[in-house]
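ok, trying the design again with the full structure, not the truncated one.
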């Protein structure tokens, strides 16, 4: 095989992005250029590396094997660059991917605990959804990820070997509503009362389910607004423009004018918060960040 560092970076980015188009955007290439690079890489290796699917691109077993080696090679290149430029890190760096709904309620406290307990470890964070962070772990662009799962709590993906996961918390899903709206002064709401509610949801795609609507809601939900940013969603709730689902762990950081309601007449919706990493013995820094996340609750 005659592979370049560019080949390996393209492979890693496709694995993380889950599509040729998204990988092209992040690399600054055209989609056709990434497709040609992928085809060239498969010819060089002599095996199919990518499985083209309606919902994106997944790596084949051969692709995952090459990705494991690519991570090692690219990490060595980056270490060599630091050595040659004299930019040796003074602390151990851990790249942490954070679920969007977990950042506000957990991340500041976890980073404070990390600084006090392990000052030689520095965590840098990036935000994403559970599917995108899982791909980033597999691609090696993050070291650790804070993910969520719902019953029956299957592994984050179907790839092999399985990611190593540790449960941080089991919490319930609730409905966020305006304190001055139709549900003012209440601590709970029946599922039937939510059928005609205006919902504030996160845009969905084939790879990521619609977020912000109560699971199993009878009938078709009426989506009044869509937004990815949690602060935007909650301020829309405070203004009386709709309701949305919220993990109960966000209760301490809700903006004024928003209250959480327990949903009755429907099964409990448990959301598990997980810390995930690649299998194997973790570096000391990854262990320290995991410990800080667990102790911050």
């Amino acid at each position: 095989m005659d592979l370049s560092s560019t080949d390996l970076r393209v492979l890693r980015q496709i694995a993380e992005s889950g599509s040729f188009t998204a990988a092209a955007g992040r690399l600054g290439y055209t989609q056709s250029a990434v497709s040609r690079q992928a085809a060239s890489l498969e010819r060089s290796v002599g095996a199919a590396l990518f499985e083209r699917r309606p919902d994106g691109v997944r790596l084949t077993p051969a692709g995952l094997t090459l990705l494991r080696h690519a991570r090692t090679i690219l990490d060595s290149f980056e270490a060599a660059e630091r050595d040659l430029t004299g930019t040796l890190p003074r602390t151990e760096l851990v790249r942490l991917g954070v679920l969007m709904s977990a950042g506000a309620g957990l991340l500041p406290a976890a980073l404070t605990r990390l600084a006090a307990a392990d000052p030689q470890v520095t965590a840098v964070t990036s935000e994403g959804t559970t599917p995108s962070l899982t791909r980033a772990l597999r691609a090696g662009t993050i070291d650790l990820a804070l993910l969520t799962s719902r019953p029956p709590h299957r592994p984050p993906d179907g790839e092999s070997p399985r990611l190593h996961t540790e449960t941080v918390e089991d919490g319930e899903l609730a409905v966020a509503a305006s304190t001055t709206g139709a549900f003012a002064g209440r601590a709970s709401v029946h599922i039937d009362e939510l059928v005609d509610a205006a919902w504030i949801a996160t845009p969905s795609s084939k790879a990521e389910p619609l977020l912000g609507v109560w699971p199993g809601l009878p009938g078709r939900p009426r989506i009044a607004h869509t937004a990815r940013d949690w602060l935007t969603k909650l301020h829309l709730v405070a203004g009386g423009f709709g309701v949305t689902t919220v993990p109960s762990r966000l209760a301490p950081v809700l903006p004024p004018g928003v209250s959480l309601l327990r949903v009755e007449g429907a099964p409990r919706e448990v959301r598990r918060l997980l810390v995930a990493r690649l299998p194997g013995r973790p570096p000391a820094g990854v262990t320290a960040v995991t410990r800080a996340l667990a102790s911050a609750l």
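Keeping the full-length input from now on. The mean pLDDT is 88.
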